[in-house]
Structures are given as C-alpha cells and as structure tokens.
Amino acid sequence: MTSEVTARRADTTDTVASATRDGTRGASGELLIEVEPHNCFACGSLNEGGIHLDLHVDGDRCWTELTLADRFQGWDGIAHGGIVCTILDEVMAWSLAATDNWGLTARMSVDFKKPVRLGSRIRAEGWVAANRRRIIHTGSRIVDLSTGELLATGEGTYVAAGDERKRELQARYRLRLAPAANVGRSA
Prior knowledge:
With about 190 residues, this protein is mainly β.
C-alpha cells in the first residue's frame, strides 16, 4: 500500500503553476502522486497512531479534508493544538512538492482563531508565498467545511534540500504520478 497525494490541474486564477509535471492526466484531470510507504505521523501509511492525511496538490498549493477523531483531543471535544500545527505544517511542506522542492521546516507560527472541533469536517490548505533559492516561505489555513469559519492560520519557512539530498529523498520515496480521483478520509 502506498501513501497518496493527489495533484490536480488548476482552473483557478490564484494558482501559479500546474502540478502536472509530465502532462499526463486522468479522465478527471487529476494525478495521484504515489510515494513508498513511510512512517510520517501526518501522511505516512505505516504509522499506526498517525493521522494518515490524504493530500492533494494544485499548483503551488496543497490541501486536505478530514474529520479528526477523539484520539486527537486536547480539551474536551477540541483538537489538540499540536495536531492543528501538524496539519498546517504538512500542507505547507507538501505545497513545496508542486514546485519540485523537498524541504524541512525551519520556522513556523500559528494563530488559533477558533477551536477545531473533533468530529467536524475541516479543510486545511497550504501554499508557497515566496521562493528565494533554498528558503521557501509558506502560508496556511484551516476552515470548518460546514460553516466556512476560519479556525487557524499559519506561516512557515522551509529550507529546501540540496540537489544530492533531493535525489536521495526522491529515491527513498519513489514519487510517481498516476491518474486518480479525489478520496476523502477521517483521521
């Protein structure tokens, strides 16, 4: 079983670049980025206690939709702040994939606007705000899908991997594109 990230050709004006690197598209216009199974807490398929995010890439943006289960609780009925940060970090980090970058989080800040309720469907989005050689600045947000309320925002700074490390990561994760359709998930 592989972890999956879906890349979809953008039809919106706020998207800078297409996530389609080789021009191959499925019938729905979407591409699935498949990676080898790995143990990442947020997106890995091997981490039994993980969130197992289904991530989608659209231009220089990444998004996921999910419903958090009780095991991610902080205060009663509310997602733990660390889980909210993890989700924001993940969509910001994967937004780099659309620009063919691999990177590590150097700095991150989060503003919690409203509680993220367990059992509520949410959407997290991350995007590249600026790319300066190996330093990439990103933004993110989480919204409640039923109310449209903004729940949290984040900013991140990522350090892109050098060419040799990027090749190592590409070999390890064996990133590949395949036609796919959107799939939602509960964590």
